[in-house]
Design a protein that fits this description.
Length: about 150
């Protein structure tokens, strides 16, 4: 019989998804706060990120609008949580797992693939049928990156 307590102990998935949700709260985006955590196969956190402006850009220097000309919307300027987690990584992300609050877009998928991340655990998938997310799945599948939706029952 084991002396270790298991009831009430967080699974690794729950632990890292909670961290992703907390780091998302650093985002100043008025509509979408996203967070990401990169961990090794030994469950060591190597990177954290949230969506926001590039370093050194002040909050009010760029637009947060979601509609209008591309240059007048946030989409031209925002660094996504997944990208920031890679940029902020303390060491290699090769063969790591990415936990993220939203399924990554096609641009993030390219960053994930190029940096050797082999698995994605995502929570939300609200953009599933939009072209950037269709392309993302196509890229991830072609590169052999596994992905699964987080469930508190995992």
């Amino acid at each position: 019989m084991s002396n270790y307590r298991t009831e009430g102990v967080l699974s690794w998935d729950e632990c890292f998804m909670r961290i992703a949700r907390v780091i998302a709260q650093r985002s100043k985006d008025p509509v979408t706060q996203a967070g990401a955590v990169i961990v090794t196969k030994k469950n060591i956190v190597v990177g954290l990120g949230y969506n926001g402006w590039p370093r050194g850009v002040e909050l009010d220097e760029l637009p947060w609008a979601r509609e209008g000309d591309f240059v007048d919307t946030k989409y031209a300027y925002v660094v996504h949580a997944e990208e920031n987690a890679v940029y902020n990584a303390n060491g290699s992300t090769e063969d790591c797992v990415l936990y993220c609050t939203l399924f990554p877009c096609n641009e993030c998928a390219k960053t994930i693939i190029q940096n050797g991340i082999t698995e994605i655990v995502f929570e939300g998938d609200k953009y599933h049928d939009l072209p950037p997310w269709v392309v993302s799945r196509r890229l991830l599948d072609a590169a052999g990156v596994r992905y699964r939706q987080y469930s508190c029952h995992n």
